[in-house]
Design brief:
Blueprint lengths: L1 H33 L5 H41 L3 H5 L2 H35 L9
Length: about 130
C-alpha cells in the first residue's frame, strides 16, 4: 500500500513539474534571446521573477485540482459531522494533503534549479529559436 501511495504522489506531481520546468527553461531562453548581453545574474534574476509568478499560479492550480478531485469525499466527511482534525488525519484525506504538499515542494525546488541550469546552457550554446518564430 505504501508503494501505491508513493507512486500516486509521484505521478500526480510529474505532470505539473514537467510543465513548470519546460516553461521556465523556455523563459530563460527567451530572456537571453531578447538581451544576450545581460549578465548571468541579471538573466537568472529576471527568469526568477517570472518563475515566482509561475510557482504561485501552478501551486494554486495543483491544490485546486486535488481539492476538486477530493470534493465528493470532503462532502461525505462534512455530512458525517466528524471533527476536522479527525477527518484530516484519516488516510484518504491525508493522502490528498501529502500529494498537494509534495507537488508544491517539487515545484518550488525545481524552478530555481531549472533557471540555473537553463541560464548556463543558453549562455554556452546561445538561445535556440522559439517554436513559433518565423
Amino acid at each position: 500500500m505504501r508503494g501505491l501511495l508513493l507512486a500516486a504522489v509521484i505521478f500526480g506531481a510529474l505532470g505539473v513539474l514537467d510543465d513548470v520546468t519546460v516553461t521556465q527553461a523556455a523563459t530563460v531562453a527567451e530572456l537571453y534571446a531578447a538581451n544576450p548581453n545581460a549578465s548571468q545574474w541579471k538573466l537568472i534574476g529576471s527568469a526568477m521573477s517570472v518563475g515566482r509568478s509561475h510557482i504561485a499560479a501552478t501551486v494554486n492550480t495543483l491544490v485546486l485540482a486535488y481539492l476538486g478531485a477530493s470534493l465528493p469525499l470532503l462532502v461525505l466527511f462534512a455530512v458525517g459531522h466528524q471533527p476536522p482534525l479527525l477527518t484530516a488525519s484519516g488516510e484518504s484525506v491525508a493522502v490528498e494533503i501529502v500529494r498537494g504538499l509534495v507537488g508544491s515542494i517539487g515545484i518550488v525546488a525545481a524552478v530555481p534549479f531549472t533557471t540555473l541550469v537553463a541560464s548556463l546552457v543558453v549562455r554556452e550554446r546561445g538561445a535556440a529559436p522559439s517554436p513559433g518564430a518565423a
